[in-house]
C-alpha cells in the first residue's frame, strides 16, 4: 500500500480499502470536548489577537482559514470515515481511560496520572455562562451553526451551543 511510504497524508485521501487495512489492527479512540469549551480554552491560551471573548468569537466566525484549535471535531477526526472503538468525553477521562486500559488487559490504576477533568467541570460551566453572556444573539446562532455537526454527532447535552 502507498500509505506505508506516505507521511502526513490525510486519512480521507486514501480509498476505503487502504483505510480499512491501515486502521484494522488498531484500537481507535476519539477524545471529544464540548466545542464551546474548546473555544474558551483557545481564547484563554491567547490564541486570539482580540482582548474580548466576543471579538475572538467574531474572529473565528469571520476567518476563512479554520484553525485546528477551533475547527469542528467532525472535520478533524473524520468519524464518518473511521469507526472508532471508543469515544471518550472530557469530563469522564479518568473513568473512561481506566475502562479502556482494563479492556486492553493493562493495570489501570498504576498507569493513570491524576486527572482532574471532572473536578474542573464546574469551572467550565461558570466560564461558559460568563463568556456566553458576552456574545450577541447572532454570534450564538452562528456558533451553533458552525458546530452543528459536532453537536449532532456527540452528546454535548449541557453545551451552551445546543440550547
TrEMBL record:
Organism domain of life: Eukaryota
Name the EC number(s).
Answer: 2.8.2.-
The record ties this protein, via Pfam families, to: Sulfotransfer_2
Q: Which UniProt keywords apply?
A: Carbohydrate metabolism, Glycoprotein, Golgi apparatus, Membrane, Signal-anchor, Transferase, Transmembrane, Transmembrane helix
Chief location bin: Golgi
**UniProt entry tagged with the keyword rRNA-binding:** no
Task: Read off the InterPro entries from this record.
Answer: Carb_sulfotrans_8-10, Sulfotransferase
State the compartments where it is located. Golgi apparatus membrane
Q: What class of enzyme is it?
A: transferase
- The keyword Transmembrane belongs to this UniProt entry's keyword annotation: yes
Q: Which GO terms describe its biological process?
A: carbohydrate biosynthetic process; dermatan sulfate proteoglycan metabolic process
Q: How does it sit in the membrane?
A: Single-pass type II membrane protein
Gene Ontology CC terms? Golgi membrane
Per the database entry, which stretches of residues form a coiled coil? none
In alphabetical order, the GO MF annotations are: sulfotransferase activity
According to its UniProt record, which protein family does this protein belong to?
Belongs to the sulfotransferase 2 family.
Q: What is this protein called?
A: Carbohydrate sulfotransferase
